[in-house]
Protein backbone atom coordinates (compact mmCIF):
# COMPACT_ATOMS: atom_id res chain seq x y z
CA UNK A 1 0.00 0.00 0.00
CA UNK A 2 1.34 3.49 -0.87
CA UNK A 3 0.94 5.99 1.94
CA UNK A 4 1.07 9.60 0.80
CA UNK A 5 2.02 11.96 3.57
CA UNK A 6 0.02 15.15 3.57
CA UNK A 7 2.33 18.09 4.05
CA UNK A 8 1.27 21.16 6.01
CA UNK A 9 -0.68 23.72 3.97
CA UNK A 10 1.36 26.60 2.53
CA UNK A 11 0.57 29.99 4.02
CA UNK A 12 0.17 32.05 0.86
CA UNK A 13 1.00 35.30 2.67
CA UNK A 14 4.57 34.02 2.82
CA UNK A 15 5.03 33.84 -0.98
CA UNK A 16 5.98 36.81 -3.12
CA UNK A 17 4.82 36.72 -6.74
CA UNK A 18 7.85 34.66 -7.89
CA UNK A 19 7.28 32.24 -5.01
CA UNK A 20 3.58 31.92 -5.81
CA UNK A 21 4.30 31.39 -9.48
CA UNK A 22 6.70 28.56 -8.59
CA UNK A 23 4.08 27.10 -6.24
CA UNK A 24 1.50 27.05 -9.04
CA UNK A 25 4.03 25.70 -11.56
CA UNK A 26 4.75 22.74 -9.24
CA UNK A 27 1.06 21.96 -9.47
CA UNK A 28 0.90 22.28 -13.24
CA UNK A 29 -1.02 25.58 -13.11
CA UNK A 30 -0.31 28.40 -15.59
CA UNK A 31 1.51 31.59 -14.57
CA UNK A 32 -1.59 33.80 -14.79
CA UNK A 33 -3.03 32.09 -11.70
CA UNK A 34 -0.57 34.18 -9.70
CA UNK A 35 -2.16 37.41 -10.86
CA UNK A 36 -5.67 36.08 -10.24
CA UNK A 37 -4.95 34.85 -6.75
CA UNK A 38 -2.97 37.94 -5.71
CA UNK A 39 -5.79 40.13 -6.89
CA UNK A 40 -8.16 38.30 -4.53
CA UNK A 41 -5.71 38.30 -1.66
CA UNK A 42 -4.37 41.82 -1.83
CA UNK A 43 -6.82 43.90 -3.90
CA UNK A 44 -9.99 42.52 -2.43
CA UNK A 45 -8.66 41.27 0.91
CA UNK A 46 -10.35 37.92 0.35
CA UNK A 47 -8.96 34.86 2.09
CA UNK A 48 -11.78 32.40 1.50
CA UNK A 49 -10.79 30.29 -1.51
CA UNK A 50 -14.38 29.23 -2.15
CA UNK A 51 -15.27 32.88 -2.85
CA UNK A 52 -12.65 33.18 -5.63
CA UNK A 53 -15.17 32.60 -8.35
CA UNK A 54 -12.95 33.12 -11.40
CA UNK A 55 -10.81 30.11 -10.39
CA UNK A 56 -11.90 26.68 -11.57
CA UNK A 57 -13.72 24.68 -8.92
CA UNK A 58 -11.05 21.98 -8.94
CA UNK A 59 -8.36 24.58 -8.29
CA UNK A 60 -10.37 26.11 -5.46
CA UNK A 61 -10.63 22.66 -3.89
CA UNK A 62 -6.92 22.12 -4.31
CA UNK A 63 -6.19 25.45 -2.66
CA UNK A 64 -8.47 24.50 0.18
CA UNK A 65 -6.50 21.30 0.70
CA UNK A 66 -2.95 22.53 0.16
CA UNK A 67 -2.91 26.22 1.03
CA UNK A 68 -4.14 28.61 3.69
CA UNK A 69 -4.16 32.26 4.65
CA UNK A 70 -3.14 31.93 8.28
CA UNK A 71 -3.43 35.04 10.42
CA UNK A 72 -2.19 35.61 13.96
CA UNK A 73 -4.74 35.62 16.76
CA UNK A 74 -5.53 39.06 18.19
CA UNK A 75 -4.96 38.96 21.92
CA UNK A 76 -5.48 42.62 22.71
CA UNK A 77 -6.68 45.68 20.82
CA UNK A 78 -6.24 49.12 22.36
CA UNK A 79 -7.00 52.62 21.13
CA UNK A 80 -5.17 55.68 22.48
CA UNK A 81 -6.71 59.09 23.06
CA UNK A 82 -5.00 60.40 19.87
CA UNK A 83 -6.45 57.60 17.70
CA UNK A 84 -3.29 55.47 17.68
CA UNK A 85 -4.23 51.83 17.80
CA UNK A 86 -2.15 48.96 19.13
CA UNK A 87 -2.71 45.24 18.75
CA UNK A 88 -1.02 42.43 20.57
CA UNK A 89 -0.82 39.43 18.24
CA UNK A 90 -0.12 35.85 19.21
CA UNK A 91 2.74 34.37 17.20
CA UNK A 92 2.84 30.94 18.77
CA UNK A 93 1.78 29.30 21.96
CA UNK A 94 3.82 31.55 24.19
CA UNK A 95 4.87 34.61 22.25
CA UNK A 96 3.34 37.92 21.30
CA UNK A 97 4.29 40.79 19.03
CA UNK A 98 2.80 44.24 18.78
CA UNK A 99 1.80 46.35 15.80
CA UNK A 100 0.72 49.97 15.91
CA UNK A 101 -1.43 52.04 13.50
CA UNK A 102 -0.91 55.79 13.45
CA UNK A 103 -3.64 57.70 11.58
CA UNK A 104 -2.78 61.13 10.16
CA UNK A 105 -4.70 63.34 7.78
CA UNK A 106 -2.59 62.47 4.73
CA UNK A 107 -1.63 58.90 5.54
CA UNK A 108 -2.12 55.86 7.70
CA UNK A 109 1.15 54.39 8.96
CA UNK A 110 1.46 50.85 10.21
CA UNK A 111 4.43 50.14 12.44
CA UNK A 112 5.20 46.44 12.12
CA UNK A 113 7.37 43.97 14.01
CA UNK A 114 10.01 41.79 12.36
CA UNK A 115 11.08 39.61 15.30
CA UNK A 116 9.71 38.43 18.62
CA UNK A 117 11.93 40.46 20.93
CA UNK A 118 15.35 41.68 19.77
CA UNK A 119 18.92 40.57 20.34
CA UNK A 120 20.55 43.97 19.80
CA UNK A 121 20.24 45.02 23.42
CA UNK A 122 20.10 48.80 22.94
CA UNK A 123 20.28 50.35 26.37
CA UNK A 124 17.16 52.55 26.08
CA UNK A 125 14.72 50.12 24.40
CA UNK A 126 11.99 48.05 26.04
CA UNK A 127 12.08 45.45 23.26
CA UNK A 128 15.83 45.05 23.72
CA UNK A 129 15.33 44.59 27.45
CA UNK A 130 13.09 41.59 26.68
CA UNK A 131 15.81 39.70 24.84
CA UNK A 132 15.38 37.73 21.64
CA UNK A 133 12.85 34.97 21.13
CA UNK A 134 12.71 34.24 17.37
CA UNK A 135 12.48 35.65 13.85
CA UNK A 136 9.07 36.18 12.31
CA UNK A 137 8.63 34.39 9.01
CA UNK A 138 7.58 36.27 5.87
CA UNK A 139 3.91 35.37 6.29
CA UNK A 140 3.89 36.66 9.87
CA UNK A 141 5.32 39.99 8.74
CA UNK A 142 2.94 40.34 5.79
CA UNK A 143 -0.06 39.20 7.84
CA UNK A 144 0.28 42.31 10.02
CA UNK A 145 -0.38 44.61 7.05
CA UNK A 146 -3.07 42.34 5.64
CA UNK A 147 -4.84 42.20 9.00
CA UNK A 148 -4.66 45.95 9.63
CA UNK A 149 -6.23 46.68 6.24
CA UNK A 150 -8.98 44.25 7.08
CA UNK A 151 -9.58 45.53 10.62
CA UNK A 152 -9.55 49.25 9.84
CA UNK A 153 -11.97 51.20 7.66
CA UNK A 154 -10.44 52.36 4.33
CA UNK A 155 -9.23 55.96 4.17
CA UNK A 156 -11.28 56.38 0.98
CA UNK A 157 -13.25 53.98 -1.18
CA UNK A 158 -10.22 52.92 -3.22
CA UNK A 159 -7.59 53.55 -0.56
CA UNK A 160 -6.97 50.97 2.16
CA UNK A 161 -6.17 52.07 5.71
CA UNK A 162 -2.43 51.38 5.45
CA UNK A 163 -0.64 53.82 3.12
CA UNK A 164 2.80 53.57 4.76
CA UNK A 165 4.65 50.77 6.50
CA UNK A 166 7.56 51.32 8.86
CA UNK A 167 9.64 48.50 10.34
CA UNK A 168 9.88 50.23 13.69
CA UNK A 169 7.99 47.77 15.85
CA UNK A 170 9.65 44.94 17.70
CA UNK A 171 12.90 43.55 16.35
CA UNK A 172 15.82 44.40 14.10
CA UNK A 173 14.54 43.85 10.54
CA UNK A 174 17.97 43.47 8.96
CA UNK A 175 18.81 40.67 11.40
CA UNK A 176 15.91 38.79 9.79
CA UNK A 177 16.98 39.56 6.25
CA UNK A 178 15.93 36.31 4.60
CA UNK A 179 12.29 36.71 5.65
CA UNK A 180 12.26 40.48 5.27
CA UNK A 181 13.05 40.63 1.55
CA UNK A 182 10.01 38.68 0.25
CA UNK A 183 7.84 40.73 2.62
CA UNK A 184 9.22 43.98 1.17
CA UNK A 185 8.61 42.62 -2.34
CA UNK A 186 4.97 41.91 -1.49
CA UNK A 187 4.52 45.35 0.03
CA UNK A 188 5.89 47.11 -3.06
CA UNK A 189 4.60 44.77 -5.77
CA UNK A 190 1.69 46.31 -7.74
CA UNK A 191 0.09 42.85 -7.58
CA UNK A 192 0.58 42.88 -3.80
CA UNK A 193 -0.04 45.90 -1.57
CA UNK A 194 1.27 48.21 -4.29
CA UNK A 195 3.01 50.68 -1.97
CA UNK A 196 5.71 52.86 -3.46
CA UNK A 197 9.22 52.23 -2.17
CA UNK A 198 9.21 55.66 -0.53
CA UNK A 199 6.30 54.58 1.64
CA UNK A 200 8.02 51.51 3.07
CA UNK A 201 10.77 52.25 5.59
CA UNK A 202 13.23 49.79 7.06
CA UNK A 203 14.72 51.07 10.30
CA UNK A 204 18.00 49.55 11.45
CA UNK A 205 20.41 49.86 14.33
CA UNK A 206 23.18 49.60 11.72
CA UNK A 207 23.92 46.16 10.27
CA UNK A 208 26.27 47.42 7.58
CA UNK A 209 26.56 44.38 5.25
CA UNK A 210 22.76 44.01 5.21
CA UNK A 211 22.33 47.71 4.36
CA UNK A 212 24.52 47.15 1.29
CA UNK A 213 22.54 44.09 0.26
CA UNK A 214 19.24 45.92 0.75
CA UNK A 215 20.42 48.73 -1.53
CA UNK A 216 20.77 46.21 -4.35
CA UNK A 217 17.89 43.85 -3.65
CA UNK A 218 15.03 46.09 -2.52
CA UNK A 219 15.93 49.73 -2.03
CA UNK A 220 13.04 50.94 0.08
CA UNK A 221 13.40 53.99 2.32
CA UNK A 222 16.10 53.56 4.96
CA UNK A 223 16.16 54.89 8.51
CA UNK A 224 19.15 54.40 10.78
CA UNK A 225 19.05 54.50 14.55
CA UNK A 226 22.14 56.58 15.23
CA UNK A 227 21.39 57.98 18.72
CA UNK A 228 24.98 59.01 19.41
CA UNK A 229 27.48 60.99 17.31
CA UNK A 230 30.67 59.38 18.62
CA UNK A 231 31.74 55.77 19.02
CA UNK A 232 32.37 55.62 22.76
CA UNK A 233 28.84 56.71 23.59
CA UNK A 234 27.25 54.72 20.76
CA UNK A 235 29.10 51.58 21.88
CA UNK A 236 27.16 51.91 25.14
CA UNK A 237 23.76 52.90 23.75
CA UNK A 238 23.66 50.75 20.60
CA UNK A 239 26.06 47.82 21.20
CA UNK A 240 26.12 46.71 17.53
CA UNK A 241 28.31 49.81 17.10
CA UNK A 242 31.23 47.80 18.50
CA UNK A 243 31.01 45.66 15.35
CA UNK A 244 30.08 48.38 12.83
CA UNK A 245 31.28 51.76 14.13
CA UNK A 246 29.84 55.11 13.08
CA UNK A 247 32.26 55.78 10.20
CA UNK A 248 31.39 52.44 8.58
CA UNK A 249 27.68 52.99 9.13
CA UNK A 250 27.72 56.48 7.62
CA UNK A 251 29.74 55.18 4.65
CA UNK A 252 27.07 52.50 4.09
CA UNK A 253 24.38 55.21 4.20
CA UNK A 254 26.26 57.23 1.58
CA UNK A 255 26.46 54.16 -0.65
CA UNK A 256 22.73 53.56 -0.12
CA UNK A 257 21.79 57.10 -1.08
CA UNK A 258 24.34 57.01 -3.91
CA UNK A 259 22.37 54.27 -5.61
CA UNK A 260 19.20 56.39 -5.43
CA UNK A 261 20.08 59.97 -6.33
CA UNK A 262 16.70 61.36 -5.25
CA UNK A 263 16.81 59.79 -1.84
CA UNK A 264 17.89 60.62 1.62
CA UNK A 265 18.39 58.54 4.73
CA UNK A 266 16.37 59.25 7.85
CA UNK A 267 18.56 59.51 10.92
CA UNK A 268 16.81 58.67 14.18
CA UNK A 269 18.15 60.16 17.36
CA UNK A 270 16.53 59.47 20.71
CA UNK A 271 16.85 62.39 23.12
CA UNK A 272 18.21 61.08 26.43
CA UNK A 273 18.44 63.64 29.19
CA UNK A 274 22.06 64.53 29.96
CA UNK A 275 23.41 61.63 27.89
CA UNK A 276 23.48 62.56 24.18
CA UNK A 277 21.59 65.87 24.04
CA UNK A 278 24.18 68.67 24.52
CA UNK A 279 25.11 71.39 22.01
CA UNK A 280 28.42 69.60 21.58
CA UNK A 281 26.61 66.38 20.62
CA UNK A 282 24.50 68.32 18.11
CA UNK A 283 27.62 69.72 16.46
CA UNK A 284 29.23 66.27 16.40
CA UNK A 285 26.07 64.92 14.77
CA UNK A 286 26.30 67.54 12.05
CA UNK A 287 29.88 66.42 11.34
CA UNK A 288 28.73 62.77 11.06
CA UNK A 289 26.15 63.75 8.46
CA UNK A 290 28.51 65.71 6.23
CA UNK A 291 27.93 64.95 2.56
CA UNK A 292 24.93 62.73 3.24
CA UNK A 293 21.37 63.49 2.12
CA UNK A 294 19.78 63.10 5.55
CA UNK A 295 16.66 64.04 7.43
CA UNK A 296 16.93 63.96 11.19
CA UNK A 297 14.17 62.70 13.44
CA UNK A 298 14.61 63.62 17.07
CA UNK A 299 12.63 61.18 19.19
CA UNK A 300 11.85 62.22 22.75
CA UNK A 301 12.81 59.21 24.86
CA UNK A 302 9.76 57.15 25.80
CA UNK A 303 10.17 55.76 29.27
CA UNK A 304 9.32 52.21 30.31
CA UNK A 305 9.53 50.46 33.68
CA UNK A 306 13.03 50.00 35.11
CA UNK A 307 14.81 52.26 32.65
CA UNK A 308 17.71 54.35 33.91
CA UNK A 309 17.15 57.06 31.27
CA UNK A 310 15.01 60.18 31.30
CA UNK A 311 13.54 62.33 28.50
CA UNK A 312 15.38 65.53 27.54
CA UNK A 313 13.45 68.69 28.45
CA UNK A 314 11.63 70.33 25.53
CA UNK A 315 13.89 73.42 25.57
CA UNK A 316 16.96 71.16 25.22
CA UNK A 317 15.40 69.28 22.31
CA UNK A 318 14.54 72.59 20.60
CA UNK A 319 18.10 73.89 20.99
CA UNK A 320 19.56 70.66 19.65
CA UNK A 321 17.13 70.76 16.72
CA UNK A 322 18.06 74.36 15.89
CA UNK A 323 21.78 73.55 15.69
CA UNK A 324 21.16 70.67 13.28
CA UNK A 325 18.63 72.72 11.30
CA UNK A 326 21.05 75.64 10.92
CA UNK A 327 23.60 73.23 9.46
CA UNK A 328 21.09 72.60 6.65
CA UNK A 329 19.51 69.31 7.65
CA UNK A 330 15.77 69.01 7.76
CA UNK A 331 15.11 68.16 11.41
CA UNK A 332 11.84 67.33 13.10
CA UNK A 333 10.98 66.34 16.61
CA UNK A 334 8.82 63.31 16.34
CA UNK A 335 5.53 63.73 18.10
CA UNK A 336 5.02 60.90 20.52
CA UNK A 337 1.92 58.93 19.62
CA UNK A 338 -0.06 56.46 21.64
CA UNK A 339 1.99 56.90 24.79
CA UNK A 340 -1.01 56.23 27.02
CA UNK A 341 -1.28 52.67 25.67
CA UNK A 342 2.48 51.99 25.57
CA UNK A 343 2.51 52.21 21.76
CA UNK A 344 5.27 54.79 21.35
CA UNK A 345 8.71 54.03 19.87
CA UNK A 346 10.67 51.63 21.99
CA UNK A 347 7.81 50.82 24.35
CA UNK A 348 6.69 47.69 22.51
CA UNK A 349 7.43 44.72 24.64
CA UNK A 350 4.74 42.12 24.00
CA UNK A 351 3.77 41.91 27.65
CA UNK A 352 2.50 38.36 27.22
CA UNK A 353 5.98 37.29 26.25
CA UNK A 354 7.21 39.05 29.33
CA UNK A 355 5.04 36.93 31.59
CA UNK A 356 5.99 33.75 29.78
CA UNK A 357 9.67 34.49 30.16
CA UNK A 358 9.21 34.87 33.85
CA UNK A 359 7.50 31.53 34.03
CA UNK A 360 9.98 29.84 31.73
CA UNK A 361 12.65 29.73 34.40
CA UNK A 362 10.59 27.42 36.55
CA UNK A 363 8.78 25.46 33.83
CA UNK A 364 11.32 25.28 31.04
CA UNK A 365 11.05 21.55 30.45
CA UNK A 366 7.30 21.25 30.47
CA UNK A 367 6.93 24.15 28.04
CA UNK A 368 9.53 22.60 25.74
CA UNK A 369 7.65 19.31 25.73
CA UNK A 370 4.31 21.04 25.15
CA UNK A 371 5.60 23.23 22.31
N1 LIG B 1 15.36 47.76 15.53
C1 LIG B 1 15.13 48.81 14.63
C2 LIG B 1 13.68 49.18 14.48
C3 LIG B 1 12.81 49.14 15.70
S1 LIG B 1 13.04 50.38 16.91
C4 LIG B 1 15.94 50.02 15.03
O1 LIG B 1 16.48 50.04 16.12
O2 LIG B 1 16.04 50.92 14.22
C5 LIG B 1 12.33 51.86 16.17
C6 LIG B 1 12.98 53.16 16.69
O3 LIG B 1 12.61 53.42 18.06
C7 LIG B 1 14.49 53.09 16.66
O4 LIG B 1 15.03 54.31 16.19
C8 LIG B 1 14.80 52.92 18.12
O5 LIG B 1 16.11 53.27 18.43
C9 LIG B 1 13.77 53.81 18.77
N2 LIG B 1 13.59 53.57 20.20
C10 LIG B 1 13.87 52.44 20.88
N3 LIG B 1 13.57 52.60 22.20
C11 LIG B 1 13.10 53.85 22.34
C12 LIG B 1 12.58 54.60 23.46
N4 LIG B 1 12.47 54.06 24.66
N5 LIG B 1 12.16 55.87 23.23
C13 LIG B 1 12.22 56.39 21.98
N6 LIG B 1 12.67 55.74 20.90
C14 LIG B 1 13.11 54.47 21.07
FE1 LIG C 1 16.38 46.14 18.85
FE2 LIG C 1 15.85 48.48 17.66
FE3 LIG C 1 15.29 48.10 20.27
FE4 LIG C 1 17.83 48.29 19.47
S1 LIG C 1 16.26 49.90 19.35
S2 LIG C 1 17.01 46.76 20.90
S3 LIG C 1 17.75 47.27 17.49
S4 LIG C 1 14.35 47.04 18.55
3D architecture notes:
The chain is an alpha/beta fold and 371 residues long. It contains twelve helices and 14 strands. It has helices at residues 17-26, 32-43, 57-66, 126-130, 138-151, 177-188, 208-217, 231-237, 246-258, 279-289, 314-326, 351-370, and strands at 10-11, 67-68, 73-79, 85-90, 96-103, 108-111, 115-117, 132-135, 164-167, 200-204, 221-225, 265-271, 294-300, 331-333. Helix 1 (17-26) crosses helix 2 and helix 5 (138-151) packs parallel to helix 6. The structure holds S-adenosyl-L-homocysteine and iron/sulfur cluster (SF4). The site of iron/sulfur cluster has 11 residues, from helix 4.
Amino acid sequence: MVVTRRSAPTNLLGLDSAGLQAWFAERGEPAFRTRQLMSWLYRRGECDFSAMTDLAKTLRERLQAEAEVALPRIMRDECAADGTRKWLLATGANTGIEMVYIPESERGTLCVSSQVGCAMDCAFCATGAQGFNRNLDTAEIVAQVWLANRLLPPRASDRPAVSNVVFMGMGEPLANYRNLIPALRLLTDPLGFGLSRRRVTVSTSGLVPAIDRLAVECNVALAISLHAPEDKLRDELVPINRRYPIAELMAACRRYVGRNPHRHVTVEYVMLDGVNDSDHHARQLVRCLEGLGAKVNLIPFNPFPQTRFGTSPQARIDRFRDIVLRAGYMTVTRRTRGEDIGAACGQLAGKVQNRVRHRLGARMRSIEVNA
